[in-house]
Amino acid sequence: MRDFRPARVTNGNGNTASQARWGSPLRVVGAVVAITGGFMLTPASVAAIYGETAVMEALLLAAAITATIGGALWWHLRDHRNLSTVQAFGAVGLSWFAMSAFGSLPYLLTGSIPSVTDAFFESASGFTATGSSVVADPATLTHGVLFWRALTHWLGGMGVIVLAVSLLPLLGVGAVMLAKAESPGPDPERVTPRFSETAKRLWLLYAGFTLAQTVLLAVGDMNLFDSIAHSFATISGGGFSTSAKSIGGFSAYSQWVVVTFMIIGGTSFALHYRGLRQPRNYVRNSEFRLFIFILVLAAAAVVLGTWSATSHLRIRDAVFTVTSIITTTGFATADFGVWIPTLQVILLGLMFIGAMAGSTSGSVKVFRIDILWSSGRARLRRVLHPRGVFVARVGGKPISDDLARSIRVFVVLYLLIFMTGTALLGAISSMIKADMDVVSTASAVAASLGNIGPGLGSVGPTFTYAAIPNPGKWLLSVVMIIGRLEILPVLLLARPEFWHNR
User: Fold this and answer.
1) Measured between alpha carbons, how far is residue 411 from residues 76, 96, 102, 319, 341 in Å?
2) Span 328-384, pLDDT tens digits
3) Number of domains, the chain
4) Does residue 428 belong to any structural domain of this protein?
5) Which residues contact 501 (CB under 8 A, 6 or more apart)?
6) Which residue, 14, 21, 113, 244, is most buried by CB atoms nearer than 10 A?
7) Residue 425 falls inside a structural domain
């Protein structure tokens, strides 16, 4: 039997093999934690502007603790540069758990969410841009805490690792592997030869869209603070609102602006980079066409369904809800939990589709659905015509067997995690005698894994996740991070070989 125990072998610098193995991943974790601490200064400044002195002091303390620990870890391990592929994926998984843990400090130190479980849940939900919340009425939170809550969305939407790559040249070694482990979809697409430059340009584009939405919302019925908070939550695919009524508490103009930017956030940012220079690139992209087709088809079905059930045309609510679900944003203008079962099934299906790869949305992604459909159709034609040669294509390009196989594995793993999570949450609910039916349980896991936010039943758009037992919240927090990192980096942490081998 193979011995996985780490040997006490020293390298040229006098470090043990175990230290050498963990130096590079923990260095990345330290950098990410330090950056997270630095960004905590922003909500502290907001608290100062609004005269929230006690909140400001608590946020400054949270920033100091986070930045000091992260900076010390990064500095102590500064000589470790090289990252293997396994180390890169492990570093990203560890970074997101560490970031969520330290991100809970602003809630705990300000007393806005005094429970460690609830604070971690809210933090993980924010960074993963899920939008599930334990806060019944966000208006009861201070401006400083609300801003931190929104900022976690914005940082997690594009990716904190990608931000670190763009800000810290010292992370250049292994930068592409780090981004690959964090980015939703296939390998991160480059728009420049150097990935660090690509990261900078995509983040600038991300910030530009955020600024544009903020201006458009500010000229409507939102004040500047609400405009910024909702822009952070929209472009990131997050869904945290400053109002208990979500976007339903604002005007039709604001809702249509949010719809527009949810679609922008659900579109590949690499495609935006090319499309803004040459708009025809949008039309030429087969994944974008399929994304819009599914969105329009589902919206039309929901319009007809609500009209047949109520005899009222609810076009805005239908378009908003479908866009919010498929882009995994999680905002709401209507309580779709009381819609007829057929419409709820449509929305549940959209939870498993998601928007484009390379966007800020979660779930399976349209490109995987397209490839599964194309490869399945080619396979069926081969069965019907054994002598024929049929090649699966997407966008006119042939699909390699390796790509099709990897996507099938991903979808199977995704469904297994969904089923396992549902079974575990159901068991937790039964043991603690919590009042959760199967619809609520399954949709809570689906919404967490897809980074959507609201589900159905007792976790619908008019409810929160506060009533879920604490073990269930920890389970869903892990599921959120698994969904945000698209499974592999987190599953890797569960393998004994990862902890004991180089």
Assistant:
1) 40, 22, 31, 27, 25
2) 999 999 999 889 999 999 999 999 999 998 899 989 999 899 888 888 888 888 788
3) 1
4) yes
5) 4
6) 113
7) yes
Instruction: Report the pLDDT averaged over residues 173-197.
Output: 59
Distance of alpha carbon 283 from alpha carbon 53, whole angstroms: 51
Among candidate residues 198, 194, 171, the one with its CA nearest the CA of residue 183: 198
pLDDT in tens, 137-162: 999 999 999 999 999 999 998 876 67
Within 8 A by CB and 6+ apart from 406, the residues are: none
Q: Could you tell me which residues are beta bridge partners of residue 397?
A: 394
Structure tokens at 31: 């950098």
Rounded alpha-carbon distances, angstroms, from residue 321 to 259, 301, 318, 395, 454: 9, 12, 5, 28, 11
Q: What is the pLDDT of residue 82?
A: 64
As a whole number, mean pLDDT of residues 198-218 equals 92
> How far apart are alpha carbons 321 and 303 in whole angstroms?
11
Helix spans in 224-285 (H): 224-235, 252-265, 269-275, 280-284
Q: Is residue 190 part of a domain?
A: no
pTM: 0.89
User: Please, which pLDDT band fits residue 291 given cuts at 50, 70 and 90?
Assistant: very high
Handedness of CA 175, 181, 187, 191 (dihedral sign): negative
Q: Is residue 97 part of a domain?
A: no
The one-letter amino acid at 190: R
Q: Give residue 411's domain range.
A: 400-500
Q: Which of 311, 36, 327 is nearest to 155 (CA)?
A: 36
Q: SS3 of 312, please? A: coil
**What residues form DSSP beta bridges with 393?**
398
Alpha helices, H only, 159-223: 160-167, 175-182, 195-218
